[in-house]
């Protein structure tokens, strides 16, 4: 029997905005909930922003998993497949994926493989697009002007990343080997090596960011749960 998310759906999406001034006692308390290996990885990061992002994405993942499965944090053990995609060890009822960028961390949990990607919008790099996007995507990008071009670039980027992450094949699936079509109301995928039928959804969490979700399920949540840092810490403490 499958599991259901806390929102009653087959997939749940949760986001937390990460303040730049997270108090050190809070950081240390959250760090203690991670494995020794993950703590070491975080401590090796040079920039505090990067360390906070990795930490919060991990903690948010743990909260979503504990909520859904009704387990304690100490019962969670993460592994990864041959391409580096994280998964839960010891069970296959629940899948998850996480992403972070700038001041946001996002997590998706689902009864099927899922991919999520959040990116902060900055200047669209046409060189990157020409090199990594499919030819038809690059042509569409060139037709968009000004600030819309930047948003279109990150729409494509996050959608493509979410697909790669859902498929769980890493960059063995080149970004240029498939294309995303945004010209109709329903976002569609064009590829010769389709992983499985998949569906996309985008969520407006912040005007300066793009957030995209990919899943083989055609019933994706209408909304993202936004959780504040204080509420995240308080609720997570119940599962320690």
Automatic annotation (TrEMBL):
GO terms for cellular component: cytosol. Keywords: Antibiotic biosynthesis, Magnesium, Metal-binding, Transferase. It comes from Paenibacillus donghaensis. This is Uncharacterized protein. Belongs to the P-Pant transferase superfamily. Gsp/Sfp/HetI/AcpT family. The keyword Magnesium applies. Residues 27-110 form the 4'-phosphopantetheinyl transferase N-terminal domain. PANTHER family: L-AMINOADIPATE-SEMIALDEHYDE DEHYDROGENASE-PHOSPHOPANTETHEINYL TRANSFERASE, PHOSPHOPANTETHEINE TRANSFERASE. Residues 113-212 form the 4'-phosphopantetheinyl transferase domain. Its cofactor is Mg(2+). InterPro entries: 4-PPantetheinyl_Trfase_dom, 4-PPantetheinyl_Trfase_dom_sf, AASDHPPT_N, P-Pant_transferase_sf, Ppantetheine-prot_Trfase_dom. One of its GO terms (biological process) is antibiotic biosynthetic process.
């Amino acid at each position: 029997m499958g599991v259901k998310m806390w929102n009653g759906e087959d997939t749940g999406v949760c986001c937390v905005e990460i303040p730049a001034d997270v108090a050190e006692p809070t950081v240390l308390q959250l760090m203690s909930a991670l494995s020794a290996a993950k703590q070491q990885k975080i401590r090796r990061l040079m920039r505090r922003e990067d360390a906070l992002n990795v930490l919060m994405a991990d903690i948010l993942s743990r909260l979503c998993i504990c909520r859904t499965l009704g387990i304690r944090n100490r019962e969670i053990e993460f592994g990864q497949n041959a391409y580096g995609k994280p998964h839960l060890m010891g069970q296959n009822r629940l899948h998850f994926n996480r992403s972070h960028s700038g001041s946001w961390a996002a997590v998706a949990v689902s009864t099927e493989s899922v991919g999520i990607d959040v990116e902060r919008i900055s200047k669209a790099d046409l060189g990157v697009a020409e090199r990594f996007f499919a030819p038809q995507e690059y042509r569409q990008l060139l037709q968009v002007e000004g600030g819309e071009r930047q948003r279109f670039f990150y729409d494509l980027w996050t959608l493509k990343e979410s697909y790669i992450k859902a498929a769980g094949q890493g960059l063995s699936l080149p970004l240029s080997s498939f294309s995303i079509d945004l010209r109709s109301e329903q976002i569609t995928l064009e590829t010769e090596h389709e992983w499985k039928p998949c569906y996309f959804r985008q969520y407006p969490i912040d005007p300066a960011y793009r957030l995209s979700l990919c899943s083989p399920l055609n019933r994706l949540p209408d909304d993202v749960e936004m959780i504040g840092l204080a509420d995240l810490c308080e609720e997570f403490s119940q599962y320690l």
